[in-house]
Every structure is written in C-alpha cells, then in structure tokens.
Amino acid sequence: MNNESPAPPATGAITPLQQMVASCSGAILTSLFVTPLDVVKIRLQAQKNPFPKGKCFVYCNGLMDHICICENGNSKAWYKAPGHFSGTLDAFVNIVRREGIRSLWSGLPPTLVMAVPATVIYFTCYDQLCAALRVRMGEYAQMAPLLAGATARVGSVTVISPLELIRTKLQSQKQSYRELTQCIRSAVAKEGWLSLWRGLGPTLLRDVPFSAMYWYNYEMGKSWLCGLSNITEPTLTITFVSGAVSGSIASIVTLPFDVVKTRKQVELGELQAKNLPGQASSTFYVMCRIVAENGFRGLFAGFLPRVIKVAPACAIMISSYEFGKAFFRKHNKERPHGPLQTNP
C-alpha cells in the first residue's frame, strides 16, 4: 500500500508558518530601525525633567508600547546616562560618540520577548482571517480587511496584556518568580481573573480602530497603486508608501485614544511601582481631565511625534512582511509539487 505526504500549498499560496517567519523578520527589522528614535526621545525627556524613583515613561520599539519604571539608586540605567544635548541630531551623534552605537538600542531585548510574538500573532491571524472573510463576504469582500484587522488586534492584545502586566511587576518590585506567582494568585483571589487584563480597555480603544482603518486603507491604497502602475503584484515601493500613508491616517484619527491610553498606562505603572492598592482612573475620567486641563487640543498632544514614529514603523513592517511573503510564494512555486511515494 502506497502512502502520500500531505499536499503542498496551492501555487502562489504560503503556509501559516511561512507567514509567521515573514512577520517575525519584519518585526525585528522594524524594531532595529525605530527603537533609536525612541531612545533619543527618552534621553531628551530625562535631560529636561530627570526621572525620580517610581516615575514611569513609555518606551516604544516600533511594535508596541511598554511601560518602564525608574529604579531607585540605579545611576547606571541607560536613561540616566550623563550628557547634554541641544537637539535630536546632536543627541544621536553624541550618544554614539560617547557610549557606542549599541546604546541606541538600549532597553530593547526585554521588550522584544513580548513585542515579536504579539506581532507574529497579529499579522498571521490577519492574513488567515482576511482570506477566509473574503470568500464568505461575497460582494462585501472589500470590507474584509477592516473586520480582519480589528479581530486580529483584539486577539493579540488580549493574549499579550497579562504578560506585559507581569513584566511591569517584575521590573518595579524586583520579585523572584515564586514571589511573583504568589502576588498574581493573591490579586486573582481578591479581584478575579480580570485583574490580569487591567488597562486592556484603553489599549483596545486605540488599537482596534487603528488596525481596522490601517488595514482597510492599506489594502485599498495598495490596489489603487497597483492599478495605477498597471501591475498585479505590488512592488516594495508600493507596499512601503501604502503602509506609511495608511499608518499616518490611522495614527491621526486615533490620537486622542493614544493620549488617554498613555496617561492611563503611566498612572497604572506608578501605582504598581509604589505597590499601592487601587485602580487607575477610568478612561472617561482621564479624557475629561485632559480636556479640563488643556482643552480639546490636549487630546491631540504629540501629533507630530506620533506620526513621525508610526509612519516609518508601519512602512518598514508591512513592506518587509510583504517582501517575506513574496519570497516564500516564489519558493513554493519553484518547489516540485509531485506527491512523495513511499514503499509499502
């Protein structure tokens, strides 16, 4: 009796594993390009207002935001390194000259432990969902990216949120893993399992609309540019431009939610750092407080820095991801598709 191996993917199709490899390589490449911008921004912030013990700041590696808590007595922490900079370019030059080029990626490795898996889950789920929805939605297939993007983001954020909470506790309280386990069990016993997803609401409020708009505009923009160039497969330039433009639009529209999320993240992080009971303020309360203090303009604070950070991150991530998928499509097409025969 002859046995056949499982059939390879259809011509031009790629497997979920190949999508995961493409998104993983894209995530690492994005973080290597974008992290130096955030490291310089944080160093300039620390120069203007030195971070005291327990103070939190947001660290972005181009893939996701992380809360970092200033440690007491740690004068060697990268964000406390001495130096006076007159501006962004001066900071780049002097950090490299005095501390070496590796210092531009300070604090990156611990954040990648969560950012890379989150990105892999997000992009792989999006592609799988989008392909399935396009088949089922018929004449409304063009809306599939919007729904798939939102759903994939809910999934990835929900999976990673408890891990980010644990990472913040580890950093702030210097606990052993046994002590941390006891702390988590105690929190679950008192407040229920939902306490592990504290802070999830504001993150979803920003990331779900962002993802829905981003993927819809990206797919529409990519198709439009391909039609304009009279080609069927998008080039690296088309994916890069489509990613940058769609990322910019989504970041501008969701900016108020980003401002609220950042404020809540910092507030929650500082409560954990000081080991204080209680919860951070509600999203609506934070939004009202920002409007009361700074007017409606306060909800759009940091407009230019956010666009400058998000646009290249989206462009690099999506273009490297599409490049990886194109590489695997070509590889699969060139592969012999005949079934393997085995002896009885």
Defining key terms:
mainly alpha, 2 strands, disordered N terminus, disordered C terminus
Low-confidence stretches: 1-11, 338-344
Sheet of most strands? 2 strands, antiparallel
- Label the overall shape: globular
Beta-strand percent range: under 5%
H/E topology pattern:
HEEHHHHHHHHH
* Count of DSSP-assigned helices: 10
Indicate the radius of gyration in whole angstroms. Answer: 22 Å
Mean pLDDT: 82
* Class inferred from helices and paired strands: mainly alpha
Q: Could you give the order of strands across the largest sheet?
A: 1-2
Could you please describe the fold and organization of this structure?
It is a single chain. The chain has 344 residues and is mainly α. It has helices at residues 16-48, 88-99, 108-136, 144-173, 177-191, 200-229, 236-253, 255-273, 283-294, 303-334, and strands spanning 56-60, 65-69. A two-stranded antiparallel sheet has the order 1-2. A hairpin with a 4-residue loop joins strand 1 and strand 2 (65-69). The radius of gyration is 22 Å and the shape is globular.
What layout of secondary structure does this protein have?
Layout: H1 16-48, E1 56-60, E2 65-69, H2 88-99, H3 108-136, H4 144-173, H5 177-191, H6 200-229, H7 236-253, H8 255-273, H9 283-294, H10 303-334
Antiparallel strand pairs: 1-2
Helix pairs in contact: 1-2, 1-3, 1-10, 3-4, 4-6, 6-7, 6-8, 7-10, 8-9
Quick summary:
Helix content is 67%, strand content 3%. The protein has ten helices and two strands, in the order αββααααααααα.
